[in-house]
Structures are given as C-alpha cells and as structure tokens.
TrEMBL record:
The keyword rRNA-binding does not apply. InterPro entries: Ferric-bd (IPR026045). It comes from Desmospora activa DSM 45169. Keywords: Signal. GO terms for molecular function: thiamine binding; thiamine pyrophosphate binding. The keyword Signal applies. This is Iron(III) transport system substrate-binding protein. One of its GO terms (biological process) is thiamine transport. It comes from the Bacteria.
Length: 344
C-alpha cells in the first residue's frame, strides 16, 4: 500500500456505536439511480437522512437505505460481509485513516467520480483523494474546542492543546472516550505525534485529571457544554456551529495547531448495486450534495459552494498540523489498547 508520510492530513480513529439497521437487502437487478442504495455512514443521522431524501427527490424511483453506525462498527460489518457484501457505499469516519486501513482489507474499491477526475492527490496541503481513487474527500473537518459562551469569557479561552491543562478547566472539561470515539482517538494520536509517546502519555494523565466525564459518544461533550454540565470540550467544528444555529450558547475555538481532516466517501467492493453507489458518490460531490453538507455547517470540498459555517479552508489551513499517516495506521491498535490499560 502506498501511503504518504508527513503530509498535512487527517488522522482518524475508530469510534464504537450500535448499528441501527434499516434493512440492507436489495434487488441487485434494480441498479443505478432507480434501485435501492445501501448507504453506510457514522455521520450525523439527521444529515445523512437529509442527503438520502434529497437524492431520492432528484432520482425518481431511487431508494436510499441509510444505515448508521460508529465507524468501527461499520468497518467490522464490511469485513464480516466481505464474502457477501450488502452495502454499496461508505461515507465518513472522521478522516482518512479508516479508509487507508480498509484498502488493506480489500473492502473498498476504486472509483473516479466525474466531479473529481482532475483532482490532484493533495490540495492546499491536505490529501484530498487516494492515489488509486479508493476514496475521495467530501468535506474538511477541524478538531478543536467547543465552549459555553455564558460560562467562559473570551479572554479565558485556550489557544492551544497545552492550555487545556490550566487549573481553570479542572472539573469543567470533557472529551470523548478514545476507546470508543474517533474524535477522541484522533486527539490522542495527534498529541503522540507532536510530543512523542512518553511525553504524550504524561499529557493525557494530566488531562484526565481535568475531566469530569469521558462519554463514549463523540458528540456527548458538545451536548454537555451546551447544557452547562461542562464549560469546554473537544469537538469537531461543525458540531459547535450546528448547536449554535439551534440557539445553544456555544462557540468554537480553532487551536493554534490542530488536525485538519478531509472526510472521505468510498465505493464498497462487490456491493450489490455498484452503479447506484457510484451515482450517490457523484451526488455527494455535486453542487446539490455539497449544499446539503454546507447547510449542516460542514466545510465543503468544493470551493464554489458557500457553507453556513464561519470557517473556510483558507482560514483554517494556517492551523493545520503535520501528521504521519504511516505511523497512525501502524500504531492505531496499540495506542488504543494502551489507552484502555492506562485509563479504563
């Protein structure tokens, strides 16, 4: 497998969740836009449902069978179904790492979407597609801090990851559990790369003394911050802006240096409706599909689609930190197991 080292990239780590199966049987004879498309995703269920509904509106006779689960659950499911694939496409996972490992397991297959045919492998310092087209990016994620605007003054806000160790946040901070959440394991892996493992584990020993909870869900700290159960937490940018748009008293901080992620989509290898899977990938990268993502405060991969988020790729790129994708792929299981042995 050919993987890039030292790029501005995305590290993801697998999150655990229960799969809500909507039923994945389909008639393979009903291919393409008019058939049933089994759509696996760990992203916000309401957003993926909206994507499916918009696709169906534009493709009469099509049915999008959205099946939600944590990324680890989805990957394990794809592995279990390898001899009899039931999914057609897989969208999202907090970055490129699960898709890179999926290539080695041969559960995804190359597809070059028309919209992305002229894409380079990297753009603006971020790897935006696989060298062999086994995945393509749909949007950009930023890892940072969500905070309660009623409880935290702007002058108190942390500027970087080390600032979370300030006594100001003791008992008022939350992050997800890295044994279950991709958001949190991304945090752990990126700090290990920046600090080295010995200093990195020391950092998390101190950070855990700050936390008042370590929920399994990646979105739970954001909800706790909105409720005032915590004053600050680790989150992706869109989580904060979605909540802010609903009237919650939250805002978001982009740390001085932080992971900037491209979130991919891929065609499932030997899925029952490959033409339908390809058509939905095309839709995700189309102006219409990108508008749905933009309406959910994601940063679209297309520069001609304006998002509701106040962030843009141009604004966040100066904050991007270099990440070693090879190291992340090779050490993911070991680091996650060490976390469990140290903190569970």
């Amino acid at each position: 497998m050919n993987r890039s080292r030292g790029i501005w990239g995305a590290v993801w780590v697998i999150g655990l969740a229960m799969v809500t199966a909507v039923g994945c049987s389909q008639d393979a004879s009903q291919g393409g836009a008019a058939g049933t498309i089994a759509f696996y995703s760990p992203e916000t269920p309401d957003m993926t449902k909206a994507l499916g509904q918009e696709y169906e509106k534009n493709n009469p006779g099509a049915k999008v069978d959205v099946q939600y689960g944590g990324t680890n659950v989805i990957v394990n499911r794809l592995i279990a179904e390898k001899d009899n694939p039931m999914g057609d496409l897989w969208y999202g996972g907090g970055g490129i790492l699960p898709f890179e490992t999926a290539k080695e397991r041969e559960i995804i297959t190359p597809y070059t979407p028309e919209e992305a045919a002229d894409w380079p492998v990297e753009k603006s310092g971020i790897k935006i597609r696989d060298e062999n087209w086994e995945w393509v990016g749909t949007e950009v994620f930023v890892l940072g801090f969500i905070y309660n605007t009623e409880k935290v003054k702007k002058e108190e806000l942390p500027k970087n990851w080390d600032d979370l160790l300030d006594s100001r946040w003791k008992g008022k901070f939350q992050m997800p559990n890295p044994a279950a959440s991709g958001t949190a394991t991304l945090t752990v892996m990126s700090r290990m790369m920046e600090l080295g493992e010995e200093e990195g584990w020391g950092y998390f020993e101190r950070l855990m003394e700050q936390a008042n909870a370590l929920p399994d869900s990646g979105s739970a700290p954001s909800q706790a911050v909105a409720k005032g159960e915590a004053e600050i937490g680790i989150a992706f940018d869109f989580m904060a802006y979605e909540m802010q748009a609903r009237g919650e008293n939250v805002d978001f901080v982009v740390p001085e240096k932080t992971p900037i992620l491209v979130n991919p989509v891929s065609l499932v290898k030997d899925g029952p409706n490959p033409e339908g899977g390809k058509a939905f990938i095309d839709y995700l990268l189309s102006e219409e599909g990108q508008r749905v993502l933009a309406d959910w405060y994601h940063i679209p991969i297309r520069e001609d689609v304006e998002s509701k988020t106040p962030l843009t790729l141009e604004k966040v790129m100066p904050h991007a930190m270099p990440l070693d994708i090879d190291w992340a792929v090779d050490n993911y299981d070991r680091i996650r197991n060490e976390w469990r042995s140290k903190f569970e």
